Amino acid sequence: MAGGLLLTAAGCSSEPEGNSGATPTADPVDVVVTPDDGAAEVRPDLPVTVEVSGGTITEVEVERTDLDESAEPPEESDAVTGTLNEEGTEWVSDWTLPPGGDFTVRAVVEDQAGEATEVTSSFSTLEAVEGRRLELESNFPVSGDVVGVGMPIIVNFDLPVQNKAAVEAAMEVVSDKPAQGAWNWFGDRTAVFRTEEYWEPYQEVTVNMRLAGVQASEGVYGIENYQLNFEVGRSQISEIDNDTHRMVVTRDGEQIQDFPISNGDGSTRAYTTTTGVHLTMLKFESMVMDSATVGVPEGHPDYYRLDVDYAVQISSSGEFTHAAPWNTDLGVANRSHGCTNMSTEDARWFYENSYMGDPVIITGTDRELEVDNGWGYWQRSWDEWLSHSTLGEADRTDEPGSPGSPHGTA
Question: Which residues neighbour 44 within 8 Å (Cβ) at sequence distance 6 or greater?
Fold first, then answer.
């Protein structure tokens, strides 16, 4: 620990009797900065702290000093921010530090008489070892996307994550309009953030993934911070009734379409459309649908290979809405292999008017959509979703920070 003992004089309005001419002094101020001044190979997931007794902290700045002066200035998300307690006696960094960096802490403290003194401390963080550096492999949505109100935030990592609570705590979700949400994990590499209710439409959402320095698994550290910015557009929700063979589309609370459709014929599980809350995923103006991709190989009596237009994916088990001009039973009967068949005109409208993350709610079949089939995350109730969060606490997206702490313990 780096510490300084600060002695300053204090004035008074009268002198104590029998001590004429003596000037009483303020109590000494003791400042302790952690990590130690001069420390090397400090774990980047440990917090930076400034503690003071006999005074108060008025300013703390943590600066990275090893970057090339000609390099681009650090992003705002890379700034080392911290929180000062109500008494003004302890400052703790909010986030972890990048591995392999040199840092200087500058703290300004005041004694009880208001005299200010500056204390500095410098240290360096441990390098992340090659092959043990956690990075972001992909994410949905991506910055600049306009999405539907059901859109989750999906983060895929390149290495397994064991310290899920620390990684959850390092990912801050901020939205213009109030909401609460939580992260769930699907395997050790995929984290998904979902709100309690659908997003309110027409707003901006920012995800600050402050992963640099987080210890994702023993000896595995994040090496970079990421920021994701996307927009939630209008609210469009489609409801498909397997019994009436209709799709009703509601936008911002008003019905705007009512399409005849034909779902899976139900002759097998594979040919049964799944019931539940689906989300629109990828879109294809034209594509080849081959049953071999869903377990029905060429040579099988049920094998098929079809060219389809205006396909919108709603699960990972082969379900799409798409044009099916060959299906003469639209609005009458279910004749498909599990997809939602539509006329070419209607399928084109749905293709052109769908955002990624629009809810598609299907009812009336005996096959339930699994939570990990595509983006079936709304299949979990909010209580169940929250119980699957490692932190077990909702994150308010209209407030800074996140539940829990990204820091490890010494």
Answer: 96, 97, 98, 99, 101, 125, 126, 128, 212, 213, 215, 221
Distance CA 235, CA 288 (A): 30
The helix or strand, by DSSP H or E, that contains position 385, with its residue range, turns out to be: helix 382-387
Q: How many CB atoms within 10 Å of residue 308?
A: 20
For 145, residues 6+ apart whose C-beta sits below 8 A from its C-beta are 230, 231, 356
3-class DSSP state for residue 15?
Answer: coil
Q: Where would I find the beta strands (DSSP E) of 127-282?
A: 133-134, 136-140, 146-147, 153-157, 171-175, 180-185, 190-195, 203-209, 215-217, 220-222, 226-232, 236-241, 246-251, 254-260, 276-279
Q: Are 11 and 97 in contact (CB under 8 A)?
A: no
Complete edge-to-edge strand list for the sheet that includes strand 359-363: 254-260, 246-251, 236-241, 359-363, 276-279
Q: What is the pLDDT of residues 311-353, one digit of tens each?
A: 999 999 999 999 999 999 999 999 999 999 999 999 999 999 9
Is residue 79 left, alpha or beta, with left meaning phi > 0 and alpha meaning psi from -120 to 50?
beta
* Strand locations in 253-405 (E): 254-260, 276-279, 283-290, 305-313, 320-323, 340-342, 359-363, 395-396
**Can you read off the two tokens belonging to residue 261?**
């459709």
Query: For the purposes of burial, counting CB atoms within 10 Å of the CB of 354, is it exposed (0-12), middle (13-18) or buried (19 or more)?
Result: buried
Query: Active-site positions?
Result: 322, 339
CA of residue 42 relative to chain centroid, distance: 27
Residue 84's beta-bridge partner residues? 91
Dihedral of the alpha carbons of 404, 406, 407, 408, in degrees to the nearest 10: 90
Q: Are 196 and 216 in contact (CB under 8 A)?
A: no
Largest CA distance in the chain: 111
Instruction: Give tens-digit pLDDT for 188-217.
Output: 999 999 999 999 999 999 999 999 999 999
pLDDT tops 50 at residue 77: yes
Cα separation values, 254 from 171, 195, 357, Å: 35, 23, 19
Phi, psi (deg, nearest 5) at residue 43: -55, 125
As given in the structure block, the two tokens for residue 169 are 């705590």
| 206 phi and psi angles, rounded to 5 deg | -120, 135
